[in-house]
Write a structure and sequence with these properties.
Layout: H1 5-8, H2 12-19, E1 23-26, E2 29-39, H3 58-61, E3 67-72, E4 76-82, E5 91-101, H4 103-109, H5 116-120, H6 123-130, E6 146-149, E7 159-162, E8 176-179
Antiparallel strand pairs: 1-2, 1-6, 2-5, 2-8, 3-4, 4-5, 7-8
The protein binds a DNA duplex (13 and 13 nucleotides) through strand 3, strand 4 and helix 6.
Length: 206
DNA sequence: CAATAGATCATCT
DNA sequence: GATGATCTATTGC
């Protein structure tokens, strides 16, 4: 079943947690969401919407249940889902998927992935694997080729909360959510002892 | 296994 | 003109 718009018209953090375990479908390819990050309005300087409405960020202020796809580092695109009622900023970055369907197609789109885990475990990776580009920016994910659905049988899982990754502003805010123990989350592999890598908090001071 | 540099461009100052 | 919600290949233990 496709998630209704009401699912997205809630506080961003609730949407970010609720999206874990759901299925992103684009054409013949699909994957289960195992890692998300919340990007809020207001004081969250890490969010693109922090500096107000621009040509790029207008989607974040628009109606919920739409895709916000942006281009970054000259090479990669990242998929977000717009939350909050229309007029209020807030979106959820999809950071990692567990491949579900269309594996051959995904492999073809990502020749650099040597393991199944590498296929979709990262924001730039999963957009390549699913074939998502800026053409999907602003697309309605409650209808069309790009949708988010509930899995056939929803399993129980615990949620881990950590700081967000790859940002400089507000780097210590606990807004990253992962399915605990799922091997497809991005970051250090826990095949062996995963040592905690301490990052300098840049936003903790004044 | 851990750390580092390079690729590359839309967006904003 | 600088920077960034990244990924990959390469180097060094």
């Amino acid at each position: 079943m496709i998630l209704p718009r009401g699912f997205y018209a809630r506080p961003t953090i609730e949407v970010a947690r609720g999206l874990l375990g759901k299925i992103v479908v684009h054409g013949e390819t699909s994957g289960k969401i195992v890692e998300t990050e919340a990007y809020l309005g207001g004081d969250d300087l890490a969010s693109h919407s922090a500096h107000g409405i621009t040509a790029r960020t207008r989607v974040i202020f628009g109606p919920p249940g739409h895709a916000y796809v942006y281009f970054i580092y000259g090479m990669y695109e990242c998929l977000n889902l717009v939350a909050e009622p229309e007029g209020q900023p807030g979106c959820v970055l999809i950071r990692a998927l567990e491949p579900v369907a269309g594996l051959e197609t995904m492999q073809r789109r990502r020749p650099a992935a040597h393991t199944l885990r590498d296929l979709t475990s990262g924001p730039g990776r999963l957009t390549l694997a699913l074939g998502i580009t800026r053409a999907q920016n602003g697309a309605d994910v409650t209808r069309g080729a790009l949708t988010v659905r509930t899995p056939a049988n929803e399993e129980n899982f615990a949620i881990d909360v950590t700081p967000r990754i790859g940002i400089r502003q507000c780097a210590d805010w606990p807004l990253r959510f992962v399915i605990k123990g799922n091997p497809f989350v991005s970051g250090p592999k826990d095949s062996t002892r995963a040592r905690r890598k301490a990052r300098n908090p840049r936003c903790s001071g004044s």
